[in-house]
Write a structure and sequence with these properties.
Number of strands: 17
Shape: globular
Bound molecules: fe (ii) ion
Low-confidence stretches: 1-18
Order of helices and strands: HEHEEEEHEEEEHEHEEEEHEEE
CATH superfamily: 2,3-Dihydroxybiphenyl 1,2-Dioxygenase, domain 1
Largest sheet: 9 strands, mixed
Number of helices: 6
CATH architecture: Roll
Structural class: alpha+beta
Number of domains: 1
Distance between the termini: 52 Å
CATH class: Alpha Beta
Radius of gyration: 20 Å
Strand order of the largest sheet: 9-6-7-8-5-10-13-12-11
């Protein structure tokens, strides 16, 4: 024991507190994505993938659906029906659901798990604000697993937009840094940090997410806009890379049925509701929020 500094009870309490995951920056903004709902054809196969490969837990099962999440927090609903018809790649809907892990070791741990499971990745990028790994589920729904750099490390421009880029991510170095422990699911605190949509038209997406819902444009790429509240790099992105000119989704199409946008700030929620009313976009008051469809038939529920 010689040489060890005895710890006061207060010091150990503080050390314990330090270990608690603090909510991600993305989730403390005025609004953020809370969860998403995919319609699939092979419910058992896709649910197994999100449990065994992505590392989500099953929170609830019904005959036609599965609710999945992390540490009891719902992030993803999968449902199916006999009507579910496979959406073409060019359909409006999901580009990817982006699961935000708490830190770099958690990203490395997931990568090591995916490598050991022989998962085929679609790519990996360093976006300056974040480090991201891309893959697809068995029905080709896009998935991103990412971690954010500290917002203090991000570069903001004078107009409030944020510097992002797509640079190579050294996957080998990330893999080598992985904790040598058995993967037991997504780290506590993992959230749906953003959702990236396929839409038919960028000016129309700007008009909806910026002018109607009141999100800020944080960055633009050719054929894509990135929207957020509270200075996050993006809570929602929209691109036309596969879907230029896409029309509204048809009922029963596989892929993204709807997602939930949670408002922490009442003023931002009122701004969004006023924008919807101004544009006469039909909203339905439900037990937990306001439901509507975007110009491409993608459902969203505003909750508070
Ligand atoms: Fe993304």
């Amino acid at each position: 024991m010689r040489g060890q500094v005895p710890r006061s009870p207060k010091a150990s309490i503080m050390a314990e507190t330090d270990k608690l995951p603090s909510p991600a920056f993305a989730l403390t903004r005025p609004a953020h994505v809370e969860s998403a709902h995919l319609v699939v054809q092979d419910l058992a196969r896709v649910a197994d993938f999100y449990r065994d490969i992505i590392g989500l837990s099953v929170l609830e099962r019904t005959p036609s659906g599965v609710l999945m999440g992390v540490a009891g927090v719902p992030l993803l609903t999968l449902s199916t029906s006999a009507m579910a018809a496979r959406a073409p790649r060019s359909a409006a809907g999901l580009f990817h659901n982006a699961f935000l892990v708490p830190d770099r070791p958690a990203l490395a741990a997931w990568l090591a798990h995916a490598a050991h499971a022989g998962v085929r990745l679609d790519g990996a990028s360093d976006h300056l604000v974040s480090e991201a790994i891309y893959l697809s589920d068995p029905e080709d729904n896009g998935i991103e697993i990412y971690r954010d750099r500290q917002p203090s490390e991000w570069t903001y421009h004078d107009d409030g937009t944020v510097e992002m880029a797509t640079e190579r991510l050294d996957l080998q170095a990330l893999y080598d840094s992985a904790p040598k422990t058995r993967f037991s699911g997504m780290a506590d605190g993992t959230a749906l940090g953003h959702i990236h949509l396929q839409v038919g038209d960028i000016p129309q997406a700007d008009a909806f997410f910026r002018d109607v819902l009141g999100l800020k444009v944080m960055a633009r790429y050719p054929g894509a806009s990135f929207f957020a509240t509270g200075g996050y790099h993006h809570h929602v992105a929209a691109n036309i890379w596969n879907s230029r000119g896409a029309e509204a989704r048809r009922i029963g199409m596989t892929g993204l049925s709807d997602y939930r946008l949670k408002f922490n700030a009442e003023s931002e929620l009122q701004t969004a509701l006023a924008g919807l009313e101004r544009q006469e976009i039909k909203t339905t008051r439900t037990s937990d929020g306001w439901s509507l469809r975007d110009p491409w038939g993608i459902g969203l529920t505003l909750t508070s």
